[in-house]
Amino acid sequence: MRFSALDRQEIIEKLEAETYDVVVIGGGITGAGIALDASQRGMKVALVEMQDFAAGTSSRSTKLIHGGLRYLKQLQISVVRNSGRERAVVYENGPHVTTPEWMLLPLHKGGTFGPFSTSIGLMMYDFLAGVKRDERRTMLSREETIKKAPLVKQEGLIGAGYYVEYRTDDARLTIEVMKKAIELGATVLNYAKATRFLYDDKNRVSGIEATDLVTDHAFTIKAKKVINATGPWVDEMRKLDRGKANNKHLRLTKGIHLVVDQAHFPLKQAVYFDTENDKRMIFAVPRDGKTYIGTTDTVYEADKAHPIATAADRDYILDAVNYMFPTIKLGKEHIESSWAGIRPLIWEEGKNPSEISRKDEIWESDTGLLTIAGGKLTGYRHMAEEIVDRLSDVLKRDYNLSFAGCRTKHLPVSGGDVGGSAQFPAYVKAQTQYGIDAGLNEAESHFIARYYGTNSKILFDHFKENPYQDTPELSRLTALRLWYALNYEGILYPDDFLIRRTGNLFFNIDAVKREKHAVIAKMAEAFAWDEEQKQAMEARVDQYIADTAAFPVL
Predict the structure, then answer these.
(1) Strand pairing class (19-25; 192-199)
(2) 192-233 pLDDT per residue, tens
(3) Which of 23, 87, 290, 496 could crosslink 46 through cysteines, CB 3.0-4.6 Å?
(4) Are 394 and 43 a contacting pair, CB within 8 Å?
(5) What is the CATH number for 524?
(6) What is the CATH number of the domain that holds 147?
(7) What is the reported pLDDT for 74?
(8) 515 with 497, same domain?
(9) Crossing angle for the helix pair 531-547 and 509-527, to the nearest 10 degrees
(10) Parallel, antiparallel or unpaired: strands 361-364 and 290-294
């Protein structure tokens, strides 16, 4: 099913012309999940996002679907149970964007975790999260730990806990959820900013006014209900509402990650370790020939749209790595790229700042505006279920409309309909051969089958009819992926493709530097950009590249 910015005007005209059951503001993983859940229940759904889909927090996380082991230490049992069980749901519904990742938790004398408490904690974790038998935790001896992770600090090493989390590409997960929502009837638009609310004669929210940020054209979207799912911008949207706000607000914290080549940090096993001084927990995760490390947790009050890692953030991570992995001697010269993301946490006036909540909450103003705040990537589907249940009740109460219940627990996202994780390897094998028959080599075919799941057939069929050739400026694989992103993944700007549809800015920055001109040239052909627009796009991409290694001193 086509989803393209080339149809942008038609999409806007549709948004203007129709009346929706709900308009969702925010195109991150939360908004995408809401759009999918509401659409599958039969609701008529519109969604707008002022940046690209997943451009905020939803492309800037640790890229793990995890159960929150640290919450167990804080005795947040319900959080651990809910998020732990959701891991497997997310995995089964999209095995092409999520994969199990065995995590090693090293235990040192005087460290945050001791062997007994870790063993009990991980056993509780398995129980609460309903972990599959073959993925349940085990405790490793010192010798077994060194064998699995020889780079880990051996001084004071007692052993390790060994358990499963799930690694994902957060931006890809978001776009696959969004594509599924569109398939089920949702009308969505990126680079469209909600600027004010519309009200009926009873002072109830009845839609929004939005501005197309490409043309500055303002248009209205009529809807029975509006959901504010804007993440870090939740409070800004609430201020636009006439309704009386509650006494809860967001407190934003920033987390950053560094990416280095495995030549400098040859990690073969994901490790979850504590820092030397403040005992914060840090992840180090191998991925596609790179190792990425994070995260920090600092109060953030700067530009929400463009957070970047500072020199202090960088040095904190480097110090943590060199403490736990003393032989690698990682320096700032080894960093290839970085990213920074913002956590929207909930703080209630009158409470101690230490009581900031990481849970999600739903608020309804006296004008009927529904807001969902807080939460995390792992729980996106469950969060969507909660607020669409609430939405369904409200539509029943105010309009006497009835809708089906939630069915997303066993609903594959776009590309994920492969018969579940157990059937995915066989699917990839068969589809790899399909790609080879279409004219691609085995490595290219395997990558596409693994990356795009059941949507890979679209790419293979197109290549068979339009066989691209490798050039020094652009590989045929990138050219094929760009064609797909232009026609089926709603990209409008080159960074949409280079960052969020491929992840290359973070994990293959050399390819971005090598191919950016050709990517922009191809997009210029599609969108009829003139020379001035092409130069603006070059500057835009160059700025993103610079931001990955800027590390300003503040």
Answers:
(1) unpaired
(2) 999 999 999 999 999 999 999 999 999 999 999 999 999 999
(3) 23
(4) no
(5) 1.10.8.870
(6) 3.30.9.10
(7) 60
(8) yes
(9) 160
(10) unpaired
Tell me: do 276 and 132 sit in the same domain: yes
Last residue of a domain, one of 300, 315, 348: 348
With tokens 């909450």, the residue in question is 361
Pick from 422, 472, 477: which is nearest to 452 by CA? 477
Query: For the purposes of burial, counting CB atoms within 10 Å of the CB of 290, is it exposed (0-12), middle (13-18) or buried (19 or more)?
Result: buried
pLDDT of 347 reads: 85
Name the DSSP letter for residue 384: H
Assign residue 235 the CATH number of its domain: 3.50.50.60
**Cα 93 to Cα 89: distance, rounded to the nearest angstrom:** 6
Do 532 and 387 share a structural domain? no
Which residue stretches of 141-191 are H helix?
142-148, 170-183
- Kindly report the number of other CB atoms within 10 A of residue 192's CB atom: 27
Give the Cβ contact number of residue 389 at 10 Å.
16
Q: In terms of C-beta density within 10 A (0-12 exposed, 13-18 middle, 19 or more buried), how is residue 426 classed?
A: exposed
**Whether residues 366 and 491 fall in one domain:** no
Q: Closest by alpha carbon to 394, among 49, 43, 46, 16? A: 43
Does residue 372 lie in a domain region?
yes
Q: Is the pTM of this model over 0.85?
A: yes
In this prediction, residue 14 carries a pLDDT of 98
Q: Which DSSP symbol is given to 418? A: T
Number of domains in the chain: 3
- Residue 435 · residue 451 · CB < 8 Å: no
The structure tokens 């101690």 sit at 352
| Amino acid code (one letter) for 128 | L
Same domain, yes or no, for 160 and 191? Answer: no
- Sorted by sequence, the CB contacts under 8 Å of residue 41 that are 6+ apart come out as 388, 392, 403, 404, 405, 406, 407
Q: Which residue range forms the structural domain that includes residue 21?
A: 5-57+171-247+351-410
- For residue 456, give the nearest of 475, 474, 438 by alpha carbon: 438
CB count within 10 Å of CB 393 equals: 11
518 and 405 together in one domain:
no
Q: Are residues 223 and 265 in the same domain?
A: no
Which of these, 23, 21, 20, lies nearest to 210 by C-alpha position? Answer: 23
